[in-house]
Amino acid sequence: MLLASPEESLALGARLAELVRPGDVIALSGPLGAGKTSIARGLLAALGLEEEAPSPSFAIVQPYDPPEVRFPVLHVDLYRIEHPDEAEELGLDDARGDSLLIVEWPERFGAAYWHDALWLSLEPTPDGARVLTAKVPAAWKDRWPQILP
What we know:
Elements: E1 2-3, H1 6-17, E2 25-29, H2 36-46, E3 61-64, E4 73-77, H3 87-90, H4 92-95, E5 100-104, E6 118-124, E7 130-135
Parallel strand pairs: 2-5, 2-6, 4-5
Antiparallel strand pairs: 1-7, 3-4, 6-7
Helix pairs in contact: 1-2
C-alpha cells in the first residue's frame, strides 16, 4: 500500500480505529520520520482523543483512558529501550488484556514478542511517500481487508 501524504497516514489510522478492540496490538515499524506516529495519531483521534497525541518517545508509555478515548489505549515508543528484558518493567503483558497497544519500534523486543500483532512496516520513498507492508495475524484476517482503500 502506498501512503502518498501525512494525511493518508492519518486516514489509515482512522480506518484502523473502526476495527480495533481491546487486546489488539498494532506494531508500527520503520525508520525515524517514516510516519509511525502519524498513523497512531489518526487512530487515537478517531477513538475520541481531542488534542494531538504527543510522541511517547520520552515517556515510553503514554496511556489514554475513557472518556478521553472509547477504551483504554497504550501508545508505546520503544526507541530508547536497550534490552527486551525491560518489557516486564513496562507492564505491557498485563495491559494487553484490556487495552489496545500501539507500539512504535516493536523490533526492540523482537518479532516473537509481538507474534499476534498487526505489524505495519513503513518505508519512505524518495518522493516523500511511504510504502506500507503488513504482516497480518490470524486475529486480523477478517478485519484487514476492510482497512484497504
